[in-house]
Design a protein that fits this description.
Layout (H helix, E strand, L loop, with lengths): L5 H17 L6 H27 L4 H36 L2 H8 L5 H24 L39 H12 L9 E7 L6 H10 L1 H6 L2 E8 L4 H13 L8 H12 L4 E8 L4 H11 L6 E7 L2 H7 L5 E2 L5 H12 L9 H13 L4 H10 L6 H9 L12 H10 L3 H9 L9 E2 H10 L12 H14 L3 E6 L6 E5 L1 H11 L3 E3 L13 E3 L9 H10 L7 E3 L10 H10 L5 E3 L20 E3 L21 E4 L20 E4 L5 E2 L21 E5 L6 E2 L11 E5 L16 E5 L16 H5 L6 E5 L9 H5 L8 E5 L34 E5 L19 E5 L2 H6 L8 H4 L4 E5 L14 H7 L10
Parallel strand pairs: 1-4, 1-5, 2-3, 3-4, 9-10, 10-11, 11-12, 12-13, 13-14, 14-15, 15-17, 16-18, 17-19, 19-20, 20-21, 21-22, 22-23, 23-24, 24-25
Antiparallel strand pairs: 6-8, 7-8
Helix pairs in contact: 1-2, 1-3, 2-5, 3-5, 6-7, 9-10, 13-14, 13-15, 14-16, 17-21, 18-20, 18-21, 19-20, 22-23
Amino acid sequence: MAESFAFNIADKLLGKATSLLLDQVSLARGVYAELENLKDTLSAVKAVLLDAEEQQLNNHQLTDWLGKLKDCFYDAEDVLDEFGYDSLLREVVNEGGFRRKVRHFFSTSNPLAFRFKMGSKIKGIRERLDKIAADADKFNLKKITGAPARVPGPYREREKTYSFVRASDVIGRDGDKDEIIRLLMQSSDDDHENVSVLPLVGIGGLGKTTLAKLVYNDERVVRHFDKRMWICVSDEFDVKRLIKEIITSATHDRCDDLPIDELQVRLRDELNDNKFLLVLDDVWSKNRDKWLELKALVDVGAKGSKIIVTTRDKLVANVMGTHPMYELKGLPDEECLSVFIKCAFKDGEDKRYPRLVGIGKDIVKKCKGLPLAVRTLGGLLYLKTNENDWVKVRDSECWQLEQEKDDILPALKLSYDDLSFDVKQCFALCSLFPKDFEFDNIELIQMWMGQGLIQPSQEKEEMEDICNRYLDELLQISFFQDVEFDDEGLFFNFKMHDLVHDLALLVAGPDYSTLNFDCKNISTKVRHFSMPGIYWPKEEEEKVSRFFGKLNNNIRTISFPDITHGPRSEAFVGSCILRLKYIRVLDLQKSSFKALPNSICNHKLLRYLNLRGNRNIKRLPNSICKLHHLQSLFLDGCESLEELPRHIGKMMSLRLLIVRTQQIALPPQAPGERKVKGGRRCFNSLRFLGLAGCNSLESLVEGMGTFTALRTLIIRYCPFLLSLPNHLPALETLEIINCKSLDLELGNRNGEKEDDIQAFGSLRILILSELPKLEILPRWLIQGPTSNTLLRLSIESCDNFKALWEEEEESPSLSSSVLPGGVDHLTALRQLEIKYCPQLSALPEKMGKLSALTHLTIEGCPELVNRCKRGTGEDWNKIAHVPDLHISNSSDSDEESGPLLSKQLVERVKHAPLSKFAS
């Protein structure tokens, strides 16, 4: 059943209407009154939407009503966003002084005329909404105020599990069973821990409960433990109920009438000095306090007692586990086929139908290793011998097939229903991408932001951080998987399981669609579309014109994922601009047109523009700077781009800029323009700046009013860049790779200005690679506020890095070739990596004072590696306190190495939003 998301949209509209009402100066009196009326109607409708969304499953009239309501909401949002544009425009005008204000008043976009025009639009929307809202009475909907972030869906209730399983029915899990039994029987390394917890984690339908049953009933386990107990926890982690069920499972006696104090005494008596195995199946709660309350009661067991927790959520595993989580993987295709045959045929019948078995092999591949999916599709075909029935299942998407409540999509939807409203909507947008698509973390979250799916929290949390939290939530429940980090561990790609993609298609509904130029009938409901893997016709201009003639003008998203070549001519962009005035996300990567038309500025609501990989475009029109809503601009891989528009730094909402350009300075300085003392105010809203392959770039604009909100700065392959800006107060992540002319010291090298020390007061991650001018760590890193914030420092392939800074010496000599004596100031440093710096020969005496350091890598530094040999090296005592060490002369050597750095640590260390982009 498709989600309506009407509640989400109504909530956003109320926020926008409230914000506009607070900004009364921009509103004429009549407009203010109409906006108040609209807000009142929205509040009344929103109160019944939760009940309506829950009831629509069994009421098609209600589904139609929600659809009309949502269309009206979308149109209302377009109008309110136009008002938002007007507010941003006024900010620009006000900054421009009196003359600009006069020009603006007498221009075609006269502010008074605009507001009265928009007031009329709001009135029309409000009257339309009133008419639709009046129909709510016939559905007898309940008002629900103060709605929770999560609402139970129609499949939310789950049957309780039990411990019995017939081992002969389970295929392909013997290896997993043996490994878990080995973990259960090994003694704990912690002398203070009697009871340890092993989380068993995986996506819904993978067979976690079945595997736990196999382990629970294995003879080795039965002999090893004095007591065994099986509890199905499911939705609510009710400690009193769980105590009762543990007692009942251990004693086979009921204890319903006992008060809580007597229950806890009896539980402790039953478990005291007994080595027990407790299975807590299907845990959803992340409430650590409740878990610790139960854990304290069962900790009386004998040493070697174990608890198995099965869960879909890695966060639950982190809350409860004492062992590393055991992540269950999918079954191989051969074993999946055995399961499928068992479900689709009577015993031995498959031998009579070899053609059906051949089709079955293709069906099994769709399941991507999920046993429940295999059983679902096999069950659909049980006793069916007509080949057409099998071909239909093979060629259909899973979401199009009939499902019982215990089948795969309802099972996956349990995880979906547990998500917050906003995360659900972000997940639905992923349906635009094809199966097996490789997502880029930053492109995706910028799309979410571009669609307005992310609302700033009351705690003023940055939108990028909210996106990262949502992304992490989807990763934790394995909706996103196959994560691959880049070489520096900063950026990552990931995929969706095919059946999770089917779930996304199911919940996304008609708003989201994949299209091609030959589509004959395009639903009027479509507001977001993608064209994956399309072939661009030779007669592009003609086909594009016909295609856009079939679309409504309220399209919000156009994307071309997973294609070799994007749009080739300006005709496509021109058609977009001519017809689609409400577009928010325009993804034209890998296109090959040579220019954006000046009329791009008419897309007033555009928030995301991706021109990544366009090798022909030379300039952007100056009019692009009028896109005051634009948040994300991708220009990496645009190798012919000569320069950016002069006023690009003044764009009010720009948060991400990734660019390859041939200009000397960023932003470019106009001929004859004087340098203003203190620098120009620009890029004030920018959070992420990426520069890649800017072969002529020598300087970044400086000044106290520049880059004030920048959190991530990535510079790669800029050979003539001479220095960094000297005031980046919000910067958290800095990566610099292959910048041959760059000097990391700031300001006046002789005068040692205060600015040099205070430049980077928030830095958390610093990655330096291939910097031939780097001989010592810069003074601002060791002695400034960065010394208290830096969590990760990586230095690689810096041939001249000798790294000496002796604080007690006035003019330090470089002959010592050791890490700086001031390195002990890096009190927060957790991770230090030094690779292929051949001139670095020793570590400082104060290395042992880096008490927070947990991971140290030294690689390809011959002299230093010899000094750090375990137990015998001259510098061994300086690093012996570090838990995880990797010391070797080459990347593939195991010499002197301990546990390698985990990607999970990188995730915990990083805070700023990050992205991968082409160099």
